[in-house]
Amino acid sequence: MMIQGFSKLDREGKIELLIRHNHLPAEETELLYRYLHSQDQALFDDISENTLSNYLLPYGVAPNFRINGTTYGVPMVTEESSVVAAAAKGARFWAAHGGFQTKVVQTLKLGQIVFTHHGSEDLLQQLLPQLREHLVHAIGHLTANMERRGGGIRSMAIHRIENVPHTWQLLVGFETADSMGANFINTCLEMMAPELRLFLEKQFPELPSPEIVMAILSNYTPDCLVECTVSCPVDALAELAGNLSPLAFARKFERAVLVARHDVHRAVTHNKGIMNGVDAVVVATGNDFRAVEAGVHAYAAAEGCYRGLTHVDLSDTHFTYRLQLPLALGTVGGLTGVHPLAKLSLTLLQNPDAPRLMEIAAAAGMANNFMAVTSLVTHGIQKGHMKMHLSNILNSLGATPAEKELAFIHFQSQTVSYSQVDGFLKKMRHHG
Ligand code: MEV
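A: This is the predicted complex of the input protein with (R)-mevalonate.
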């Protein structure tokens, strides 16, 4: 059955309708009311549509991130156990060995106007300088403010869309200062699109009228790029090397990173470990994690083959580890100034500009990936994960604090699985 007019109902009406529609006991929805915010609910209601309640995730801080000589406590929002702990561990290790060196390579973002054109490429390309001048002039009133902030339009190029007949794109490069820029870019592009159509109509009156297919920013941001490097003498890796010598550990680490460059199964997981850190910062600062995810993975596949995003440079005495990834982030606009915890995150990070936030998120990605690969080539990851995993299972089974305490002791030397923990609790409860 289709639900009509859901958005028009107030919160109570929506919840009642859900109860009826899903044959839920009314108590089930009590949770929705319990997670409403006592002060800021109106604010959260306005962030999205049909808001019934709020979905909480842990908000934590990984301390001791030394990035280009400045130390940060990095706020992280994640649902995954051990991400914050791994970031903190990586940060602490590298703080003692020179910290994270980061550099923003470029901050250009792209948008595209896709259009049809039935004429030759040569003529179209010849017109580009004139077209650019026309479009920049036509939206001057929109870009003036951004230009004052150091941003604006930086480039325009025309490309044929391969394999789609008579279809082209105007690829526009933007600097968006400290904003992520999605709204600015989309507004500019939508304003330029009809101007582009009129311009082409005028230049090519003999051809079929051009059609604007769409005007939209691109989340592929290979020119909005940040690098993060860590480096230390091989001997300094001793404390991480487990049973291995520091050099054997470094060589194994290097091999693991090479595997991630050349094997897609490993590459995706390797990069996921980077994104564990990056996304947690992106979410904590109110940025768009879907945009970042889409852009990073496309970049990882830019050579036509999906690759790990990190590199090792290893000599007999020195270990260097590098990460390069695109991150289109903002520190003004969007949710950054609306969500109270996003604002707090930026305050905790000493109110960074957008490039600085790119550096911090990259360092978080590096810390998480470095610790993940370190675990994988030594004792494996389950050892570190188990305590949190056990805690999650115990909570899901409604364990009391006393039961938890006994379970933590028992499972120190036992394999943790849902059924094992369930069995343990049942036995304990049975025996009183
Ligand atoms: C788990 O969230 C992330 C890892 O799988 C990353 C990796 O394998 O490098 C541990």
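The mean pLDDT is 96. The chain is about 50% helix and 20% strand.
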